[in-house]
Design brief:
This protein is 43% helix and 20% strand. By secondary structure, the protein is α/β, with parallel strands linked by helices. A six-stranded mixed beta sheet has the order 5-4-8-9-13-12, sandwiched between helices. A three-stranded antiparallel beta sheet has the order 1-2-3. Strands 6-7 form a two-stranded antiparallel ribbon.
């Protein structure tokens, strides 16, 4: 039996890592040392194109770098013809919900307006695949669909950070985390965007080793691969270039009490500084008062709930710590230049 070796080099300063992927040939034909894994992606209309690319491209590159067909993939939509992503691009698909082939993993990928895209047919399809024994995963806002199906009760899950507010309100029984992905639960979830690439590289590493995962990441020019414990958003300290522990504690306390706001003076007392010190810190690092920043946090949460859910304005006002819908509407219009009723369902 003849053998060939594919060599891939990665250089860091004076160090060279050499990756050797061995391929076997017999009678001039490639013999696969491992069975090809089949991944199926259900594309829900308005799905995220960046998450889609970050899901499929690592698989393609793994085949390219290894010289073997480690993976194959196919796409599914409700009509079995095509699916449109949020940027308007249309992707042709291989199957409809009714003729999904047997696969090693099935992912549901959605994007914006997910609460309007959950159909009875989709939920029935996912439940059928679960009974079939297919390993299931959700990408970007797909965890919302899994939660609707009842898959995530009592387990950890990840979803894009923009959906956190609405998700926690609708599915309090799910242990939502801010991690980029969750891969150690029965149903794996990734928060979307480049986090989908992190998940795929994790799966590639588990199946075929660290060297191949590194080679794939290099081909993607992706040198900041994250593990599951990484948080989605850049920390407040990094975003504003600050390292003040009192600021971090104050803002965390605000975030924990958006539905029942407390006074900045009480926050200052809880973190062990004076109200005047707190005022000075917010002026120095954020160029605003603690009260103004607190209100902006509550309004941002309200905006997410208006855009992502069908809840009433009264419910949203109360969930964001406003005493009445009228007061909420006035503050919201003053901040965003549009009323809550016009904002509902629209991302402006």
């Amino acid at each position: 039996m003849a053998r060939c070796y594919f060599c891939y080099q990665r250089k860091y300063n004076l160090n060279t890592i050499k990756i050797r992927v061995e391929c076997n040939f017999k009678s001039g034909l490639l013999v696969h040392m491992d069975d090809t894994k089949h991944f199926v992606f259900i594309l829900v209309d308005e799905f995220s194109h960046i998450a889609f690319s970050c899901a499929v491209e690592p698989l393609r590159i793994a085949n390219l770098v290894s010289g073997k067909d480690l993976y194959k993939w196919s796409y599914v939509s409700e009509d079995g013809v095509s699916a449109a992503c949020s940027n308007g691009s249309v992707t042709l698909v291989h199957h409809s919900y009714g003729d999904i082939p047997k696969s090693d993993r099935l992912f549901v990928l959605s994007g914006i307006n997910v609460h309007k895209k959950v159909s009875g047919k989709l939920l029935a399809t996912l439940r059928r695949e679960r009974v079939r024994g297919t390993a299931l995963g959700a990408l970007c806002s797909g965890a919302h669909i899994f939660a609707k199906a009842g898959f995530l009760d009592g387990v950890q899950a990840a979803i894009h950070w923009e959906f956190h507010d609405s998700f926690m309100e609708e599915f309090p029984e799910v242990a939502l985390v801010r991690n980029v992905f969750v891969a150690d639960e029965k149903f794996i979830t990734a928060s979307g965007g480049t986090a989908t690439a992190d998940l795929m590289l994790h799966l590639i590493e588990n199946a075929h080793g660290h060297d191949l995962a590194v080679a794939v990441a290099d081909q993607m020019v992706y040198n900041a691969v994250r593990d599951a414990t990484a948080e989605q958003r850049v920390s407040l300290q990094s975003r504003h270039g600050m390292r003040n522990p009192h600021m971090a504690k104050a803002i965390q306390r605000m975030n924990d009490t958006l539905d029942a706001p407390i006074s900045p003076a009480l926050i200052a007392e809880e973190i062990g500084i004076s109200a005047r010190q707190l005022e000075r810190l917010f002026g120095k690092y954020l160029n605003c008062s603690p009260k103004k920043y607190y209100v902006e946090m509550r309004l941002e949460r309200a905006r997410n709930l208006l855009v992502q859910t069908d809840r009433s304005i009264t419910d949203i006002a109360l969930a964001c710590g406003f005493e009445s819908p009228g007061h909420f509407s006035r503050v919201y219009r003053a901040n965003f230049g549009v009323s809550p009723s016009l904002q509902q369902g629209k991302l402006t």
